């Protein structure tokens, strides 16, 4: 019988979690589902868990954040165990690699550089170090190394930041807004005359420029859209409540009535009612 003392130790910490995952992946005695997983099959869960961490932070739900961070940590342990099973690397290699990277990127803390520098200077130094790291990986293009799997809005901002470093950027926010107007007009024209794939292309162009506007205005577009989603959910739920008070459901209402209730909800939030 295997020694389960660590697995059942409530204070076993990270070693306990790693042992649980090792046992789950054991080809003879583990869980069939866990055994058959691959990097690709659990990658969607990794992304989902990262978003759930962000959601808990947004809501300041600290007890939930603890649990969500645990779920995200499990994903790291899961990937590392798969890598070890396949002979690529082990968990300690992951921890050592990021430790080496953080030490190298903070010479003003762990080296002999002065800490007496502004946040802006530290950002420039950080980018210089990362550029050197990309060069070592033969990533010589300005846009090399921006992960394709990032959420589209986030990747758009990162691509634009990279291009801006070499001067490919509008100097004024007003110019970005002008470009949004131009792209919106092109989308309008495409919707009237062009096939769906061209309409989608123009829509993508408009979103890309909107992401650029967010960057110029120092707004995180993902965070802004999450907030807009939350506001829409809150207000529509209020519409449903008001309709329920009248003995109705949204299916039994119409756009004019729900639009009036939407405006009432906004007025309530502003304290006007």
From TrEMBL:
It is an enzyme of class 3 (hydrolase). The keyword DNA repair does not apply. Belongs to the nucleoside triphosphate pyrophosphohydrolase family. The keyword 4Fe-4S does not apply. It catalyses: ATP + H2O = AMP + diphosphate + H(+). This is Nucleoside triphosphate pyrophosphohydrolase. Its EC number is 3.6.1.8. InterPro entries: MazG-like_dom (IPR004518), NTP-PPase_MazG-like_C (IPR048011), NTP-PPase_MazG-like_N (IPR048015), NTP_PyrPHydrolase_MazG (IPR011551). GO terms for biological process: dATP catabolic process; dGTP catabolic process; dTTP catabolic process; dUTP catabolic process; response to stress; TTP catabolic process; UTP catabolic process. Residues 37-110, 176-235 form the NTP pyrophosphohydrolase MazG-like domain. Gene3D superfamilies: MazG-like. Keywords: Hydrolase. One of its GO terms (molecular function) is ATP diphosphatase activity.
């Amino acid at each position: 019988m295997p020694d389960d003392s660590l697995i059942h130790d409530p204070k076993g910490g990270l070693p306990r979690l790693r042992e649980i995952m090792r046992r789950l992946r054991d080809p003879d005695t583990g869980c069939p589902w866990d055994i058959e997983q691959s990097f690709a099959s659990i990658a969607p869960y990794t992304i989902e868990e990262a978003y759930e961490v962000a959601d808990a932070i947004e809501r300041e739900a600290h007890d939930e954040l603890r649990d969500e961070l645990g779920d995200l940590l499990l994903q790291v342990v899961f990937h590392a165990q798969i890598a070890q099973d396949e002979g690529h690397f082990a968990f300690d290699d992951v921890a050592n690699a990021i430790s080496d990277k953080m030490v190298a990127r903070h010479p003003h803390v762990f080296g002999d550089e002065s800490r007496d520098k502004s946040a802006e200077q530290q950002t420039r130094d950080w980018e210089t170090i990362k550029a050197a790291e990309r060069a070592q990986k033969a990533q010589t293009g300005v846009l090399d190394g921006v992960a394709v799997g990032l959420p589209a809005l986030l990747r758009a901002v990162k691509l634009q930041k990279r291009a801006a470093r070499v001067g490919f950027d509008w100097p004024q926010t007003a110019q970005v807004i002008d470009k949004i107007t131009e792209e919106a007009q092109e989308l309008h024209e495409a919707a009237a005359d062009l096939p769906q794939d061209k309409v989608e292309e123009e829509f993508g162009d408009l979103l890309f420029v909107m992401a650029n506007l967010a960057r110029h205005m120092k707004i995180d577009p993902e965070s802004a859209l999450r907030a807009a989603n939350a506001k829409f959910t809150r207000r529509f739920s209020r519409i449903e409540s008001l309709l329920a008070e009248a003995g109705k459901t949204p299916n039994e209402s119409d756009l004019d009535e729900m639009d009036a209730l939407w405006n009432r909800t906004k007025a309530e939030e502003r304290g006007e009612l």
